[in-house]
């Protein structure tokens, strides 16, 4: 008994089409509204911190850094998700997927660093109010910003480099929005394969 040659085509069509257009458009409206609200709120906060001289204290500058990381995080993921939901884009190239994973995770890690700095800022303001002005200056806020981005890049760069080194099956195009599982499903090796565990010069 032979398999019908039309079956792979039918299966592929079913996988690509996914849920109906009503469901996708129904999901896209709240996602779009939340994205616009996030953009407007964070941009307004950044504008206020930059324009008002009374908001040049480290507490408000750290709040501005948090708004900037939120803007980067939302802008690195939501536009592609909306394009998929609206049917404007069904695939994402492997390089763009890796870049999106890198930027989104660096923003997450930077956001956690800024939140830690905000907690330290409030601790110093409460428990050492007389030394607050000397300890937390604009220079310290700049160092926090650079350290947050550097920490995120140092944590994520090895993972992205290792993902890039893996051999992958077939074409390097992902259907829909990239996730960790979609990247892993494209690999053609297991986790203990020498191609994965070997050092760069040993392959």
UniProtKB/TrEMBL annotation:
What keywords appear on the UniProt entry? G-protein coupled receptor, Membrane, Olfaction, Receptor, Sensory transduction, Transducer, Transmembrane, Transmembrane helix
Q: Which residues cross the membrane?
A: 20-50, 62-86, 92-119, 140-163
The UniProt entry, under PANTHER family, shows: G-PROTEIN COUPLED RECEPTORS FAMILY 1 PROFILE DOMAIN-CONTAINING PROTEIN, OLFACTORY RECEPTOR 56B1-RELATED
The Gene Ontology CC terms held by the record are: plasma membrane
| One GO MF term | G protein-coupled receptor activity
| Family membership | Belongs to the G-protein coupled receptor 1 family.
According to the entry, every stretch annotated as the G-protein coupled receptors family 1 profile domain falls at 41-148
Pfam families (alphabetical):
7tm_4
- What name does this protein carry? G-protein coupled receptors family 1 profile domain-containing protein
Keyword Zinc tagged = no
Mainly localized where?
membrane
Tell me the membrane topology, using the record's own terms.
Answer: Multi-pass membrane protein
Entry annotated with the keyword Transmembrane helix? yes
- Kindly give the InterPro entries that the UniProt entry links to this protein: GPCR_Rhodpsn, GPCR_Rhodpsn_7TM, Olfact_rcpt, OR51/52/56-like
The source's superkingdom equals Eukaryota
Q: What does this protein do?
A: Putative odorant or sperm cell receptor.
């Amino acid at each position: 008994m032979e398999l019908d040659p039309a079956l792979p085509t039918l299966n592929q069509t079913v996988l690509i089409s996914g849920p109906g257009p009503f469901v996708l458009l129904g999901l896209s409206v709240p996602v779009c509204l939340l994205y616009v609200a996030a953009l407007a709120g964070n941009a307004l906060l950044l504008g206020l911190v930059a324009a008002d001289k009374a908001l040049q204290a480290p507490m408000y500058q750290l709040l501005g850094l948090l708004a900037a990381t939120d803007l980067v995080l939302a802008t690195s993921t939501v536009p592609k998700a909306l394009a998929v939901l609206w049917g404007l884009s069904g695939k994402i190239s492997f390089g763009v997927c890796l870049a999106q994973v890198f930027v989104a995770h660096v923003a997450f890690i930077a956001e956690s660093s800024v939140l830690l700095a905000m907690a330290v800022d409030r601790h110093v303001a409460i428990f050492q109010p007389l030394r607050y002005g000397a300890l937390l200056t604009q220079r310290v806020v700049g160092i926090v910003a650079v350290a947050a981005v550097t920490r995120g890049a140092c944590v994520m760069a090895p993972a992205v480099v290792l993902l890039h080194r893996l051999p992958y099956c077939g074409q390097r195009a992902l259907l829909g929005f990239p996730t960790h599982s979609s990247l892993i499903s494209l690999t053609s090796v297991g986790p203990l394969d020498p191609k994965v565990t070997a050092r760069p010069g040993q392959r």
